[in-house]
Specification:
- The complex is a heterodimer of chains A (about 350) and B (about 35).
- Chain A is mainly α and about 350 residues long.
- Chain A has one domain.
- Chain A contains 16 helices and no strands.
- The N and C termini of chain A lie far apart (about 50 Å).
- Chain B is an all-alpha fold and about 35 residues long.
- The chains are: A mainly alpha (about 350), B mainly alpha (about 35).
- At the A-B interface, helix 4, helix 13 and helix 14 of A face helix 2 of B.
Chain lengths: ~350, ~35
Amino acid sequence: MSNNYASANGAPLPRTFAQEVIDSLPGLFLVIAVAVGAHQAAPMLKNYEFFQKYLTLKDFILAIIVGIAIRNTVGVPQIMRPGLRFSTILTKTGIVVMGAKYSLAGLVTVGGQALGMIFFFLFMSAIVLMWVGKKVNMPTSLTACLAAGLSVCGVSATIAVAPAVNAKKEEMAYSIAVVLMFGLLALIVFPPLGQLLNLSDAQYGAFSGVGIINSAQVLAAGFGFSDEAGIIAGVYNIGRVIFLPFIVLMLTLMACQRESSLSCEPVNKKQIILSKFPVFVLGFLAVVMMNTMGMLSDPAVKTAKGFMEWAFLLGFASIGLTTRLSDLKAAGVSGFVVGFTVASLKAGLALLAVLYFIN
Amino acid sequence: MLSYLKRLSSSRKQDLMVCLLGIGLVFVAIAMNS
């Protein structure tokens, strides 16, 4: 976007908060329009036999699909782009508000199980990918990016690991593309698969929470099945992001061990863990505590759930509107093969685990 | 406090904002139903 605010010597002046807000308004209106459109259209789709029987599209998934369709067909005008950057803020805000649906006891029940499963799948997929990458002679930095992206949390984990392993920009794009493509496919495949296998809400929530990697896609796929499944998938998602600093540390150490050329010595373990800890999880826990202390009445919880759903819906619309399918080509064929194989294997094993361990 | 906030990375600032926004929305929900 061209900068209309420059000093006498031509250097850009810092934008004020008011200017930032004004710049964001056109894009925000588009996000709201897509979210409201998806919310209104989703129930109408049920009138068609195909969507009733084979492809149940809830508003959350529809918002992402419509957003992607707009971005990759007619495009998004330049003036609207500043308003599309709030997807992460909106999705994380929804997660904080989601705490209103849990008491501490409920969180310990679901969260305990979630942490166990997440711990196993997360570290297993990261280690397997590092091993496969070595076997097929993939560059260590790319393997570490893919391992982070496919184990922890797609975009943010890749970005967190990249500097530590000296990854190139293309390698980051490559890894993010694989994660997002797999998640998009999972958004379409997981809900009907859950219905076909007659999974309970708890089973499906755990399946999507472990099998899908990107936070927004986990939540969209969960809520695409049922509200309860979405809430459970959300807890699994939180469990996953809590492990982010530890995975970043593990991959950094593994990459350093493999590549003596990486200038990553000495590794400050404490600094890595503290700097990568997802602080917004503390907000979620604060809301859980408020609910546990009885601060929220039943109607208040219902209102909070409405806020949560709209935060997610707006966040998902933003994500769709910022997804360029041309960027996804960055992964190339071999990246997709390795990435999709590991991600599909992980999802398949997650499905077996939830069928066996969760009722 | 201000100097501490200034030292934080942008992702940390964003996370803190998200916490405040989310908890704020929960307080709005409480106020709407009290």
